[in-house]
Design goal:
This protein is an all-alpha fold. The protein has helices spanning 9-31, 49-67, 71-92.
Length: 97
């Protein structure tokens, strides 16, 4: 039998640690597999807290206009909705100040 040069203790430790690390990582990755997740992009960055408050107010006006036969409440709701839709479009285009 022909043997190679004897390894020094430092080289043997490095070789054994590499073998151990490879075995350990194979077992580790087989148990704890990587899970791919998709990051959901926030496409509604134009929605501010003020717009949310305005839509809540619009919802309350709608409920009030449905329960009330007063034409002034209904016309106020329609005007408010039109103004809010214009503000929404401007916010989406980042034109608002």
């Amino acid at each position: 039998m022909k043997y190679g040069k004897p390894l020094s203790i430092g080289k043997m430790l490095i070789r054994f640690s590499n073998i151990f690390l490879n075995i350990f990582l194979k077992i580790f990755y087989s148990i704890f597999q990587l899970i791919q997740s998709k990051i959901k992009m926030n496409l509604n960055s134009w929605i501010t807290s003020r717009i949310i408050i305005s839509y809540d107010h619009k919802r309350e006006l709608y409920k009030e206009s449905c329960n009330n036969n007063n034409n002034t409440v209904a016309s106020y709701y329609r005007d408010y909705s039109k103004i809010l839709s214009v503000y929404k479009k401007a916010s989406k285009l980042n034109i608002t100040n």
